[in-house]
Description:
2 copies of one chain form a homodimer. Chain A is mainly alpha-helical. Chain A contains 20 helices and 3 strands. The first copy, chain A, folds into 2 domains: 2-90; 123-491, Orthogonal Bundle (Neurolysin, domain 3), CATH 1.10.1370. The first copy, chain A, is globular and about 65 Å long. The model of chain A has no long low-confidence stretch (mean pLDDT 96). At the A-B interface, helix 1 and helix 2 of A face helix 1 and helix 2 of B. One zinc ion binds next to helix 10 and helix 11 of chain B. Chains A, B: It catalyses: Release of a C-terminal amino acid with broad specificity, except for -Pro. Chains A, B: Zn(2+) binds at residues 260, 264, 290. Chains A, B: It comes from Oceanimonas doudoroffii.
Amino acid sequence: xxxxxxxxxxxxxxxxxxxxxxxxxxxxxxxxxxxxxxxxxxxxxxxxxxxxxxxxxxxxxxxxxxxxxxxxxxxxxxxxxxxxxxxxxxxxxxxxxxxxxxxxxxxxxxxxxxxxxxxxxxxxxxxxxxxxxxxxxxxxxxxxxxxxxxxxxxxxxxxxxxxxxxxxxxxxxxxxxxxxxxxxxxxxxxxxxxxxxxxxxxxxxxxxxxxxxxxxxxxxxxxxxxxxxxxxxxxxxxxxxxxxxxxxxxxxxxxxxxxxxxxxxxxxxxxxxxxxxxxxxxxxxxxxxxxxxxxxxxxxxxxxxxxxxxxxxxxxxxxxxxxxxxxxxxxxxxxxxxxxxxxxxxxxxxxxxxxxxxxxxxxxxxxxxxxxxxxxxxxxxxxxxxxxxxxxxxxxxxxxxxxxxxxxxxxxxxxxxxxxxxxxxxxxxxxxxxxxxxxxxxxxxxxxxxxxxxxxxxxxxxxxxxxxxxxxxxxxxxxxxxxxxxxxxxx
Amino acid sequence: xxxxxxxxxxxxxxxxxxxxxxxxxxxxxxxxxxxxxxxxxxxxxxxxxxxxxxxxxxxxxxxxxxxxxxxxxxxxxxxxxxxxxxxxxxxxxxxxxxxxxxxxxxxxxxxxxxxxxxxxxxxxxxxxxxxxxxxxxxxxxxxxxxxxxxxxxxxxxxxxxxxxxxxxxxxxxxxxxxxxxxxxxxxxxxxxxxxxxxxxxxxxxxxxxxxxxxxxxxxxxxxxxxxxxxxxxxxxxxxxxxxxxxxxxxxxxxxxxxxxxxxxxxxxxxxxxxxxxxxxxxxxxxxxxxxxxxxxxxxxxxxxxxxxxxxxxxxxxxxxxxxxxxxxxxxxxxxxxxxxxxxxxxxxxxxxxxxxxxxxxxxxxxxxxxxxxxxxxxxxxxxxxxxxxxxxxxxxxxxxxxxxxxxxxxxxxxxxxxxxxxxxxxxxxxxxxxxxxxxxxxxxxxxxxxxxxxxxxxxxxxxxxxxxxxxxxxxxxxxxxxxxxxxxxxx
Lengths: 491, 491
Ligand SMILES: [Zn+2]
Ligand SMILES: [Zn+2]
């Protein structure tokens, strides 16, 4: 049976990816600096091997023959996901893949010094090369998939999502967001927020983090918590490696970072055991992944009921202080302040940073915007959404993100799609199970049980659209996100 | 140039082995228990892949063509080592490899419960299957290599070593060892040794261990120290992962374990950077590897001058106690007591455990001893060397080691060859640089510099015989080991 041959082949690929995930985690958390060069080489060889595995010439025949295999519905979806992975790996001519990878490395490498130097002029020619090759790749993908150029890139991160849908969702969001931002700022202008008084010893932060992960149902039999410069959730679903970074001056950020990553981790740990070694058993999309972390961080973590449970824990680990009062924590964790930097943004202004990037990258790829005109468009949109000028400020303007330097166009929307999905799931869950006030106070396991049933166990067995519909009974919509933000920030 | 193609091919293999080494280390030190099944599968796939890499059908042609390449002497040795790795991987028919691996897994798995149950009768049929398939493999290797059956297995761990040489070395050793053991026991009978008084907190043991590793020149930029159930030295030479196990009741053993593993680690860290990715850049043999760990543990670590430096460190980390006196430490660390268990044996009785196993495994493989007669021979030899009877005691007799259960015949001699090499190196070094009294007290870096020049940098560029000769100016001999033991224990 050809389907069996395909399963075996993709399981082997999964095993290689497992080794890469663990060695990548080790590189970020455990490896002494002197091991880096050898590790990079070893991981490079593995990447080539994984690519070869997806380009095995037998695959084409197996896929054709598998169409005649008697498969149940899940196996058919499994076959479709294998085919998608194969298609993505074989669609572009090898020359173009190589050229794009080279231009991307060159641009990203230069960016590391050009960004701090605020050197747009030095960056532009390298970036133009990346844009040009990304357009070429997008064209090739577009032709093969029957999509627009930008949609063909979006498809890599958020299968099934189209810019037409995004234009609708973001258009709606963009309609009310600037007004909400202004309103909240006005409302918070005279609010008193006590800052948390440090220092907060690393080992105590870790103990607190582990306790909160325990609350949130993280399975320590299948995962662990460590430290890395850039927090992430890695490893494999049987062994999830979550990382954080401690700042002894600030416990608030590391703690909420752990809550966020625990959302990613529980999704991974909750993927169906039966399908874990195959593409269909992986997380549905970047946006759905982010919906789980934002569900944990924003819907649960910044909810007053959650912060009311957190308050005594903080006091227990670090001693009493007035700033640990539950209502102060709630004000602290819902503070809104327009700023230049996306990764530092709060829940309300974050979508503005994303919509701005979406607008630019879509037009760049579709050929409606040129790389040289990027700073001007950036400035316009920052003015429009957040009332900030980035004229001449490239460091904290259009040079702030790594994503575009290596040509990862199409990824940014995932962040705000995640927030939109999370709000829709949270609304549906509360309609079915009762309010977060009650659930967080009395029955967190019911929250996780619901997510497991509605999201985690489905892995990639459903499309995102079907996933959202069966979970919420509604088509995808930004309305729950609007209700959530308005209720929390201007209610 | 075919040699270049071979280099590239073997470098790729090395990268895969790198990933396996790190993931294997992770499995022993970091991995949560629930990750084990997936990890075992992933490492299994990697093993198959490494094997396939060595069975690539292009290799034969490349090796033939490379004979016409213009190669310098080092490249020629590199070629020879690649050819050796290839030969070892392709020599046996695939059916036999599979059957042996299966029988080995089955026997090893059963042994884990049969040993504690003292169940020789249950073990025997499984072990007979392993012996029979190992003989078959040995015959195939023997035919191809023009060696005796046992020598063809020995060749895997100790290239160039022959049972004829071993018979000579061990015959000599066996002549004076029983007498020495008796003499030392008599001498130590009325000696007072104060036991070290615990508990010794794990974090303090670790701090002390790190300090001692620092003394011994371990490069923390290219390695680290962690904890595992069974201490080992893993990772890759650019990133050596050393492990230990702490017992709060006993600091002496963990500490000397760290010294031992640091010897292995420095050999790895000292391998020549230029050759690290190729077979010729790997450690020469199991025996040479063990010679470095035993040089550190036995020649240096149990030397009175070393223990005199250790004494104040112990007091500093754990507080003063009479047992920390340098002369008490020296008595403690040179205590000789015949016992049943090889891994618990002291420096003097250890070779007896090895010679006994050598005698048995050689005859088993050559067909001069049958598996069913093993307990009787074991008992005879234990009586002869150590005056202990193991009649009916399989648990602490012939069932104590894991090595034979999966058919690793030919490995045991490495332990005592390591001790013999170490003594010969130590004698030569002291002739050239001065006594250990002075070197340990004033100039440890000279010791390591000498080892780096004479052993580490040569990797597998020289045969063991050439390595020993250029280092010591003498052919391989057990005489320095005899002088060392007699001087330390009956001097
Ligand atoms: Zn995230
Ligand atoms: Zn050793």
